[in-house]
User: Which sequence fits this backbone?
């Protein structure tokens, strides 16, 4: 009887110790039990993150411009020849263009290109038909006077002027675009701060900044980054020789962004 009572007391003590350890492990946050029954290891709980205010997202865009006087004149010519058959019309046209290119050969500072070529039938009154061949020629140069003198020679040869265009050479245009881009970027933050103040809020930062027409999203209007060209009036061949005056060219760059705003009390709250 005494041995039985001794074993019963030992079993009750072991059971009580096990329950005590289990209650300690369950009541301790982030408790890690060891596999060998050793002491329970605890890790400190991470503090909850500070809630960031959602605030207001403002989508807007700003533009800046830079100007310079046009320095490159381009003249578009049309060469035209008729014939009783497509072959004859093309032969006449090829000869006309060959004569024109001979005049343009070895002209310093003059860029000449022969472009589109087409052949078709034209109908005249009384059901008269003829084959017509056409080809476009383009001359461009920064030497205005020299180019206009060549244009007069081509007019006398039989070519007609379709139109004249003034533009900027690539180097000058790139500098103007850079100037306008930096100007727009400087305006961007200033405009965002002014808009935030008008809304009674504080500017947290700028997001999704886009320059020009690449990668634009729906929140911004389509930007305009190319120079605005002044088209000269088309002139037909005759005397006096053609004239064209350079105009100021404007390069405009638009920068779009999203500004994140928040109320001042949201920023001050712990």
Assistant:
């Amino acid at each position: 009887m005494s041995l039985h009572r001794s074993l019963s007391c030992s079993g009750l003590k072991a059971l009580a110790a096990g329950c005590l350890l289990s209650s300690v492990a369950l009541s301790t946050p982030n408790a890690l039990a060891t596999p060998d029954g050793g002491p329970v290891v605890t890790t400190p709980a991470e503090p909850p993150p500070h809630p960031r205010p959602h605030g207001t997202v403002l989508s807007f865009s700003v533009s800046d411009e830079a100007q310079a006087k046009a320095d490159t004149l381009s003249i578009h010519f049309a060469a035209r020849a008729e014939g009783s058959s497509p072959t004859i019309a093309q032969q006449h046209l090829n000869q006309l263009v060959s004569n024109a290119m001979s005049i343009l050969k070895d002209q310093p500072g003059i860029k000449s290109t022969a472009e589109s070529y087409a052949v078709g039938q034209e109908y005249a009154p009384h059901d008269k038909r003829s084959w017509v061949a056409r080809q476009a020629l383009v001359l461009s140069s920064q030497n205005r006077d020299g180019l206009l003198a060549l244009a007069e020679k081509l007019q006398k040869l039989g070519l007609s002027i379709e139109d004249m265009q003034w533009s900027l050479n690539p180097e000058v245009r790139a500098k103007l675009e850079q100037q306008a881009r930096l100007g727009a970027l400087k305006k961007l933050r200033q405009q965002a701060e002014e808009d935030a103040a008008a809304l009674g809020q504080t500017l947290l930062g700028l997001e999704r900044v886009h320059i020009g027409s690449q990668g634009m999203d729906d929140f911004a209007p389509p930007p305009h980054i190319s120079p605005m060209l002044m088209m000269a009036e088309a002139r037909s061949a005759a005397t006096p020789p053609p004239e064209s005056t350079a105009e100021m060219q404007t390069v405009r760059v638009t920068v779009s962004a999203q500004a994140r705003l928040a109320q001042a009390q949201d920023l001050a709250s712990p």
In short: Residues 33 and 39 are 8 Å apart (CA to CA). The longest helix spans residues 170-198. The two ends are 69 Å apart (CA to CA). The helical segments are 2-27, 86-104, 144-157, 170-198, 264-268.
